[in-house]
Write a structure and sequence with these properties.
Largest sheet: 8 strands, antiparallel, barrel
Order of helices and strands: HHEEEEEEEEEE
Number of strands: 10
CATH class: Mainly Beta
Radius of gyration: 18 Å
CATH architecture: Beta Barrel
Structural class: mainly beta
Strand content: 35-45%
CATH superfamily: Calycin beta-barrel core domain
Number of helices: 2
């Protein structure tokens, strides 16, 4: 009896990790291809400065080029904004059934050796556009950051 109660408690408290859920292959296939990050916005917030993906100011990502390969969940991106540092890196990525975009920046490291990554919410996806949303803490306040992409 006690074992059954413990089993129920453990299963009720089981976390929903972004990495241990089933994949949303349909949305992954929709993102397959080459994209340009066209706009970074902060709905409902003032002008703020945010470092995206622990790399650069979020506005440095405007104009960045992204490639997503859905059959092996690999890809790459490159920052090419003239007023920011240049950066290029391979990535691994997937979209889980909860609509979360999970990405690791590899920067010449094998994916299994990279222990940290980024989890963003997938927004509207069309044939020519999609958006990712992140929630970040700025001065003790949660702020939404929206990354808008257009297909090349």
């Amino acid at each position: 009896m006690y074992a059954l109660v413990l089993l129920v408690l453990f299963s009720a408290c089981k976390s929903k990790s972004a990495t241990n859920t089933r994949l949303d292959n349909k949305t992954e296939v929709a993102l397959k291809g080459n994209w340009t990050l066209t706009k970074v916005s902060y709905p409902g917030s003032e002008v703020i400065k945010i470092t995206s993906f622990d790399l650069a100011d979020s506005q440095c990502f405007v104009g960045s080029q992204w490639r997503f390969i859905s059959n092996n969940n690999k890809g790459e991106f490159s920052l090419n904004n003239a007023s920011c540092m240049a950066f290029n890196s391979p990535i691994t990525w997937f979209i889980n059934k909860e609509g979360q975009f999970v990405m690791k920046i590899l920067n010449e490291t094998k994916a299994r050796k990279v222990t940290e990554g980024y989890v963003l919410q997938v927004g509207t996806v069309t044939d020519s556009t999609f958006e990712l949303t992140d929630r970040v803490n700025v001065g003790g306040k949660n702020v939404t950051v929206v990354y808008q992409f257009s297909r090349n």
